[in-house]
Amino acid sequence: MGGGTEAFPDLGRHCQRSDCNQLDFLPFKCDGCHQVFCLEHRTYKSHECPRSEPNSRKVVVCEICSTSIETTGRDEKEEKAILEKHEKSGECDSSKKKKPVCPVRRCKQVLTFSNTSTCKTCQLNFCLKHRFPTEHSCKQRSPSGGNKGRWHDNLLAALWARSDNGCAKTGGGSPASQPSASHSVQAC
Prior knowledge:
Blueprint: E1 13-14, E2 23-24, E3 28-29, E4 36-37, E5 58-61, E6 68-71, H1 76-88, E7 116-118, E8 125-127, H2 151-164, E9 169-170, E10 185-186
Antiparallel strand pairs: 1-2, 3-4, 5-6, 7-8, 9-10
């Protein structure tokens, strides 16, 4: 059966499913039975392809251990039987299912390929929300193995040293009249 219209007889093909016969200008050729189908009947299952087994690969994932098991993909009863057989075998272990999570306290984000970031300072993996050193209380790792402390500790030490030199002035009044938390530092 040809395709196309009167003006363009070579354009498009008719779906070869007996109950469809729709004219499709972008037809699909099945690589199993080598027939031409429309968008609706292009899959092996939708046109009941008799030769789908050699080219069809389907994987079922075990919900207990997250192991992938290959099946033929012909019927769901076969898939259930394969999963039951896997569960009864010694290979199915629920401890394998544990996935890495963000190490930040109270963050339960599972780390995957697309949402994992490695900190350049501490070399640990974090979720995208905690990828910056300030978000995960990053502790710098030195080559000698010691911990030099946090970067903001160095900043506070520098400000403290500045105030000892008389460079900073406390705002208004004597230190006894104000609580220690309300001091303001003015730059020189």
